[in-house]
Amino acid sequence: MRIGIVMALNGPVIALDAGEGWIDFSRAYEAYTGEHVVSLQELIATDRMTPGFFHELVSLMTRERTLERFLFPGEPRFELPLRPGKVIALGRNYTAHAAESGHDTPEEPILFCKSSSACIGDGQPIVVRAFYGRVEHEAELAVVIGRRCKEAAEEEAGDYIAGYSILNDVTAREMQQADIAKGLPWYRSKSIDTFGPLGPVIALVDAIPEPVAVDIELRVNGEVRQRGNTADMVFSVPAIIAAVSRLITLEPGDVVATGTPAGVGPIGPGDTVEITIPGIGTLRNPVVEERRRRYGVARSQVEA
Asked: Are residues 247 and 131 in the same domain?
């Protein structure tokens, strides 16, 4: 099953892939439970963001023949599925990518943070400015945390996962390399506004095979740039969750980005970046240029 956020006439609502189409889960949930929920953060907090709960609700609506009442007409347009509390990302988690960036395969996970304010949804533009220098794409499988996780063992890591999504770890590469040369952290080059496309939806754990072995493909203007499989990760999803939670408590709604396969490359104004992971969908974002910074009111208003 998959779940996402859709903008309805009265504001954002949760949409659920019911097999026969997407349903307005928020409305169905309220009809059957009497509770109002319109964000995935709220739903995760109820501890009901599980395949079992969703299957039970859909089965009930199917038996009572009420499912059609909640169906969206056609394919909905998805918003950012959730604003993560924090984004923990991995560097060089594919041997081929480590090699293309001139590094050895890491012996332990390389962790860094990416600001959650960088996250945007499907269809929203990646905004670049000339002074950023070279900007590159990085296609990644994102793990969405469903329960508070501290010092989890690898064999129990799956118990803390709410689902999976797609993240484009957009990076200002020249800025990153300049900071590394000065012994500075990567944070600013990874956390620029709009440099964290996430979505389009979240696939629940029943939609992704275990152990996690899914294809990742990134295209720029239809041309394949990255193609890999999560089975080739240096550190598996359970190993990553265990390693992160040994040091950092993961909270419901946090996102862990699992690293990118080889093939990272430049993007610029006019490009369209698409990342596809079977079972999740395709995350698509155009790239645009912001030509000038606007401060407060327009010049004409000041002069008036």
From this structure: yes
